[in-house]
Amino acid sequence: MSLTLASTVKLNNGLDLPLLALGVYESPTSVEKSRYALQLDYIDLYLVHSPLAGASGRHEAWLALQDAVKEGKVKSIGVSNFSPAHIEQLLKSEGVYIQPAVNQIEMHPWNQQKEIVAYCKKEGIVVQAHTPLTQGKKLGDPMICGIAKKHGKTAAQVVLRWLLQQDVVAIPKSENPGRIKENADIHDFTLDQKDLDLIATLDQGQNGSVTIWNPWTIE
After folding, report:
1. Could you give the 3-state DSSP secondary structure of residue 44?
2. All domains of the chain in start order, with CATH
3. How does pLDDT run across 98-148, given as a tens digit for each residue?
C-alpha cells in the first residue's frame, strides 16, 4: 500500500481529508466561536462531539450544522463517538438531509471497533480514530513492540501505520514537536499480512478502551 504524508481519503461530499492529522486543537462550543478563534472564513470539518445530548439534542445540533454548511461557514460535518444506531436515528429525523462525512471514535489495536467500522464503510462514512496511541497506556505490548523491532520503528509508529492500512484516519494528539515528527514518519514501511494477523488478535472490544467514550452504552 503506497501511502505518503500527503495521502487523503475522499469524503462522501467529494472533499478530501488527510489520512494523518498531527498536533491538537481544542475547539470552542460553536461554529461561530471556532471561526473567530481560528480567524477563518470557514471550517473544513466540524463534528458533534458526542451522542450524550440524547436524540433531540443530537437532532438540534445537526440541524444547526446543516445551516452552517448551507451558509458556507463549514465545508463538512460529522459525528464523534456515535454508534450505528445513533447515526441511523439521526438520518431518519425530520429535516436531516446531510449524511455525516466522518465518525470519530476511539480506535486502536486493543479496541478495533469492527462493527462500527464495517457500518461506516458500508455507508460511505470515513472513520477517524481518536486516542489511537492509547495515551501511551498500551504501547508496551510485547506483540506490538516485536513488530516495531522487526521494522525498525516505534510501537506508536506501528499502531499509526496499522490504522492507515485500515483506511482509517488517525489523529494522534501531541504538542511535542519531536513526537509529532515521529508520528509523521510512518510512510517508509508496510505491515505485512503476518503483522496484520497478529494485531487482529489484540482486539478486546470495549474492554480494551482507555477512554470513557463507549458508543454502545449511550441511548
Report:
1. strand
2. 8-204 (3.20.20.100)
3. 999 999 999 999 999 999 999 999 999 999 999 999 999 999 999 999 999
Residue whose C-alpha cell reads 463549514 in the numeric block:
74
**How does DSSP classify residue 17?**
E
Q: Render the burial of 74-106: b for 16+ CB within 10 Å, e for the rest.
A: bbbbbbbbbbbebbebbeeeeebebbbbbbbbb
**Which residues, other chains included, contact 55 with Cβ-Cβ below 8 Å and sequence gap of 6+?**
89, 93, 219
Residue 43 has phi, psi (to 5 degrees) of -110, 135
| Cell numbers found for residue 173 | 494528539
Q: Please, are residues 24 and 173 in contact by the beta-carbon 8 Å criterion?
A: yes
Q: Which H/E stretch holds residue 177? A: helix 177-184
Q: Which three cell numbers stand for residue 159?
A: 499502531
Smallest CA-to-CA distance from 80 within 192, 169, 195 is with 169
**Cell numbers linked to 93:** 429525523
Place 49 in a pLDDT band, splitting at 50, 70 and 90.
confident
Neighbours of 14 (CB within 10 A): 8
Q: Backbone phi, then psi, for 46, in 5-degree steps?
A: -130, 130
